[in-house]
Amino acid sequence: MNSNTFGTAFCLTTFGESHGAAIGGVIDGCPAGILLDKSLIENELERRKSGKNNAMSTRKEPDAVEFLSGLFEGRTTGTPIAFLIRNKDAKTSDYENIKNVFRPSHADFTYQEKYGIRDYAGGGRGSARTLLPCVVAGAIAKQILASQGIEIASSVVQIGEEKSEGFSNDEIERILSRFRDERDTVGAVVRGTIKNVPVGLGEPAFMKFHAVLAQAMMSINAAKGFEIGEGFNAAGMRGSVCNDEFVNDGGRIHTKTNHSGGVQGGITNGEDVVFNVAFKPIPSVMQPQQTVDIQGNPTTLEIQGRHDVCVVPRVVPMVEALAAMVTLDFILLKKCNKI
Amino acid sequence: MNSNTFGTAFCLTTFGESHGAAIGGVIDGCPAGILLDKSLIENELERRKSGKNNAMSTRKEPDAVEFLSGLFEGRTTGTPIAFLIRNKDAKTSDYENIKNVFRPSHADFTYQEKYGIRDYAGGGRGSARTLLPCVVAGAIAKQILASQGIEIASSVVQIGEEKSEGFSNDEIERILSRFRDERDTVGAVVRGTIKNVPVGLGEPAFMKFHAVLAQAMMSINAAKGFEIGEGFNAAGMRGSVCNDEFVNDGGRIHTKTNHSGGVQGGITNGEDVVFNVAFKPIPSVMQPQQTVDIQGNPTTLEIQGRHDVCVVPRVVPMVEALAAMVTLDFILLKKCNKI
Amino acid sequence: MNSNTFGTAFCLTTFGESHGAAIGGVIDGCPAGILLDKSLIENELERRKSGKNNAMSTRKEPDAVEFLSGLFEGRTTGTPIAFLIRNKDAKTSDYENIKNVFRPSHADFTYQEKYGIRDYAGGGRGSARTLLPCVVAGAIAKQILASQGIEIASSVVQIGEEKSEGFSNDEIERILSRFRDERDTVGAVVRGTIKNVPVGLGEPAFMKFHAVLAQAMMSINAAKGFEIGEGFNAAGMRGSVCNDEFVNDGGRIHTKTNHSGGVQGGITNGEDVVFNVAFKPIPSVMQPQQTVDIQGNPTTLEIQGRHDVCVVPRVVPMVEALAAMVTLDFILLKKCNKI
Amino acid sequence: MNSNTFGTAFCLTTFGESHGAAIGGVIDGCPAGILLDKSLIENELERRKSGKNNAMSTRKEPDAVEFLSGLFEGRTTGTPIAFLIRNKDAKTSDYENIKNVFRPSHADFTYQEKYGIRDYAGGGRGSARTLLPCVVAGAIAKQILASQGIEIASSVVQIGEEKSEGFSNDEIERILSRFRDERDTVGAVVRGTIKNVPVGLGEPAFMKFHAVLAQAMMSINAAKGFEIGEGFNAAGMRGSVCNDEFVNDGGRIHTKTNHSGGVQGGITNGEDVVFNVAFKPIPSVMQPQQTVDIQGNPTTLEIQGRHDVCVVPRVVPMVEALAAMVTLDFILLKKCNKI
Cis (ω within 30 of 0) for the bond into B283? Predict the structure, then answer.
């Protein structure tokens, strides 16, 4: 029922499991005539893979993306852009021990119950790896947005109980190593900022800019919260403080403050769109956990292999990618507001 | 482009402005053969109107809902259920003073810029009143859910800086009166709980239960944040603490804790779905505010009339209504998971 | 599931039964700022009601349309335009004799089986009257198209075995009166022509201009066939004859012939879009018919009251209306093809 | 904007150009737990490739389909089923001569005008080869339908001016060879029949069974007409003749005749769904043709290589495939009609 498709004018359909043949996507509705810079796409995938914020090199290693359609002599043709990323030769046999066990706070139990069958290897469709196609589509969207002067930025503003206006990579690594040493994992908050947004993006009543952005962000694995502007903080504020006063700044109307986070009545007002996404700790802790198996028998689970300690820094380009897709989508939709 | 439609199988299309002829909606996809109890619908509208949590009486006053189609001898027929609520004889002339002024943190500026025209009376399409159709559709959804044993509950857990596990009406009134006296407004947090949810609701990857729920909640006027389960609190937690251990409770697999808020991998796991929605203060403060007019000239705005001090308690049935719509929608969609 | 909604950018949701309170619709996505000429809408409804091709007068009788939203000072605001047409005081009791009988070639049996309940009065949701909202939406679309120089025309090219390049009203009346005298009904073919169509309307692969047009036309009650350009005739042709040679006509590329009917590869080529819609005879013949009742018992049905003899001329404005909606929709969608 | 996606519950998104890297699709919404018989899929592709009605062997040659996701141990998992078919090493250089020329009645001109760019090799996205993914999805749908006792059949009932109740392969070959000798092409009509259809498929008002079926069929390259039941013939009939009398056949209500083609009021009535699709002659005739180039200069085009003379027999499995997809989609949607 198209639940694996996101977007209205600029649409991405994703497919793939963690350990299947490939993960990929189909972008339908990408404007025609855009000369794609594939190195920008590789850069984003590299950021996602390595967790570096600025990839120094664009190595042509996996996750190398293969484009199958929709491009002609390097330009978009307006037809669907399909692409895939091959999964490395993962052995399903490595997952025999979780085949019949429901890992706590993973999607094992819910998929099994919903479909009566599940691809357990590497988490199957529930793996964070299945979001790679968003990084690709987001990189394309970013490139188109950049041509309009729009920029997507992000920062890590909370890891565990530590908060910041934006941790450096070194700080992130320092904090995470502590949890890694304790064989535990930790949650985080990522802040996204969309700069130079045109006024008028977002559609009433159910496609408000921030409502669709919320849906996008909550689609990311481990996301548990979304807020825009003052967000939950606004619940504690007074109107006389929270309101954003309009001012005339040399002929351009804008707001003196930006408690709204760039959106009023669901429509962008030209200020920066600022939002936060909260992520829970990665559930794969390196400690014995009590759970049940597929027959409901109690069992102790010990997760093998090397796992991330936190969704950051690798989730950061994902947040940017989805924000870029949402923004481009609304730019296209806005064209239909007038004849 | 259907931005005023919400839902996939159980769909609501809404229409109407605050001071237009009527506000209403069309429900497409309501299952056939349901005997509608209209008093339950009136009750919800009354709760929304009076802000009472339990309406004592079902007065047949405005907002009286008129059903136009889709019912036969009191039962749903499977065809679209259209309904409307007439707006009382509001005088557009009352709004002459805001006709050319952009009220801070309202949708005036963004609608004007987006469409080049706006119905300014009472906030037009940007008014919270335009969510009334959700209350009607939600009341119908609730009735169907109740027949399946599913219940939607809610409570007010924060007003300004005061927090609670659920304020009583008297407590709410006491807090709000303080802000009213100061001619100011205040934000709040509403908690929703969906009880007795079947396992398996929600569709990967972009129609995760909580992703669609987030979109729904962020569509409510003044909503600035959404979280499920531990939400933003999860960012500060360790995996070893946040994970929900599976246990076998007399043959039924469930989780010992519910940090996940009833959703794992985007799909309900049978535990209560628990979520919070943060609302900013109502922007109509009874104090002079600096702003600009439609030509960009600085001006001082003094809002007239009587306005609410806070979205609670009136937004509470709205939160429940949208939660009910989302839940019913996913129950219908789940039928398609297997042949 | 939104099956009562048509269109992607310019969307109409319809509701209502033949003998319910009202029939109406909600238009979502109508461009903002259009000054609506309501007399044009009344004219189309009058054409549909009287079967006249050119309404001489615009009588303010039923079916008078009431607009509920989306207009401000006569102009579209970009928000949903809801409207309704009240049904006259039809007495459900008049339909007691068909309450438990399945009329041959009507929707009685299929609705009953599908939903387990049906509004039998006047055919309920299956009545041709439920298409009135398309006439309203189509009249709005026509007005917007006219501002772009695009015109929708139509003619009746076949009634029973008689064919023409376009029957006059008098000719239509003459033919139909013959069948009326014989207490029988008859089928017909209506030809639609969309003139001055821009090049580039229609979207591959499943939203080809003529594929969506076909869906639209086949949604009209009693429609049994659709063809574009040479249509079924093309099956009997050779490529060397059927191909449309491109020529340069004073700088504008167009085709010497128009066997394609204005569409190549699913996209308009700038020539007139020409299509035919075949309608079966109206099933309400004034003769005794054998059928079964709701228990499956054989029975003889004698239909009471006055019924049309043929869908023409009243269906003609319906064909035009849907063609206008499709054309406007694709004009809006085309805006998204390039950034 | 998702124009390359078809279906509501059982959705296919297609991608690919004739001479790009690959052609493929993503099926979203396939029910979980189905054990796929890949040989049935290969069979259908072979029928499409060779034009044989009953493939004797299932050769593992191109067009070999590679599945990328959505299957686990041979069964569908409920997640997206992606697949691709590699294009053989077609040389784009072979198409230099049509690079700048608009072939008559092809999609060259319209794609160029719409997008400002086009992949001209082999017709790009406009090639009939881009419908291969429908054959794959249709084969899967057929297999699921077969488990419900539903069968899709088809026959060629007209080629040029010759008509039949169903030509044999030999007859088809005999007729086509005549046109091949004359270096010309010819049109055809294909009849599809859906047998053992459950009562109640199709959704009012715009997703009537035959309206969606019409959209599907008109999406096939070269399709110019669609009709159901008596179709265009019904325009010449009287109601007293065309009506389908209901009878009770041993407890099952059905119709004595099937002029309706299995659909009444847009909903299947349990009789066979019978429809015709008319196709124009393939535009690639082996004769010199007058046309213009991309600058609008008159030029003579001589098409090289070997081309089909007629869409039949190769289009036949395509008609069946789309009919199967539509039928399965409506079976899934019907599950939502009641709670």
Answer: no
Phi–psi pair at B24, nearest 5 degrees = -170, -170
Q: Does C78 touch chain A (CB under 8 A)?
A: yes
For residue B62, is the peptide bond before it cis, meaning its omega torsion is within 30 degrees of 0? no
Name the token pair of B180: 């009213």
Q: Using a CB–CB cutoff of 8 Å, tell me whether C198 touches chain D.
A: no
Query: Percent of chain D scored above 70 by pLDDT?
Result: 95
Does the distance separating the beta carbons of D79 and B144 come in below 8 Å?
A: no
Rounded average pLDDT over D61-74: 89
Q: Is A117 on the interface with D (CB under 8 A)?
A: yes
Q: Cβ neighbours of residue C174 under 8 Å, at least 6 residues apart?
A: none
**CB pair distance less than 8 Å for B16 and C67:** no
Residues of chain B neighbouring A215 (CB-CB closer than 8 A): 206, 211-212, 214-215
DSSP designation for B252: E
Helix intervals (H) in D68-131: 96-99, 108-115
- The predicted model gives C137-143 an average pLDDT of 98
Query: Structural domain boundaries of chain B?
Result: 5-337
Distance of CA C4 to the CA centre of its chain: 14
Q: Assess B187–C contact: CB distance below 8 Å, yes or no.
A: no
Task: Encode burial over C272-294: b for 16+ CB neighbours within 10 A, e otherwise.
Answer: bbbbbbbbbbbbbbbeebebbbe
CB nearest C336 (choices: A29, A79, A338): A29
- pLDDT tens by residue, C50-77: 766 543 344 444 679 999 999 999 999 9
DSSP string, C114-173: HHS----GGGGGGSGGGGHHHHHHHHHHHHHHHTTT-EEEEEEEEETTEE-SS--HHHHH
B59 falls in which pLDDT band (50, 70, 90)? very low
Query: CA C26, CA B263: separation in Å to the nearest integer?
Result: 35
Tell me: the pLDDT tens digits for A116-157? 999 998 889 999 999 999 999 999 999 999 999 999 999 999
Residue D277's SS3 state is: strand
Cis peptide before C313 (omega within 30 of 0): yes
Cβ–Cβ below 8 Å for C211 and D215:
yes
Instruction: Tell me how far apart the alpha carbons of residues C103 and D265 are, in angstroms, rounded to a whole number.
Output: 12
Cβ separation C283–D243 shorter than 8 A:
yes
Residue B4 · residue A266 · CB < 8 Å: no
Q: What is the reported pLDDT for B300?
A: 96
Render pLDDT for C178-209 as a digit per residue (tens, 0 to 9): 999 999 999 999 999 999 999 999 999 999 99
CA C81-C85-C88 angle, 5° bins? 170
What is the rounded average pLDDT for all residues in chain A?
Answer: 94
Which residue type does D129 have? R
Nearest Cα neighbor of A3 from D212, C205, B212, D72 is B212
Alpha helices in chain C (DSSP H): 38-50, 96-99, 108-115, 132-146, 169-181, 209-218, 239-242, 316-334
Token representation of residue A297? 């028998």
The values of phi and psi at residue B75, to 5°, are -110, 150
A228 and B225: CB-CB below 8 Å? yes
Statement: A5-337 belongs to CATH 3.60.150.10? yes
Tell if the pTM clears 0.95, that is, is over it: yes
Contacting chains of A (3 CB pairs or more, <8 Å) are B, C, D
What is residue C176's DSSP assignment? H
Q: Do C281 and D239 touch (CB under 8 A)?
A: yes
Q: Complex ipTM, two decimals? A: 0.97
Mean pLDDT confidence for A158-174: 97
Query: Taking a C-beta distance cutoff of 8 angstroms, is the pair C36, C75 a contact?
Result: yes
- Taking contacts as CB-CB distances below 8 angstroms, the residues of chain A near B203 are 1, 3
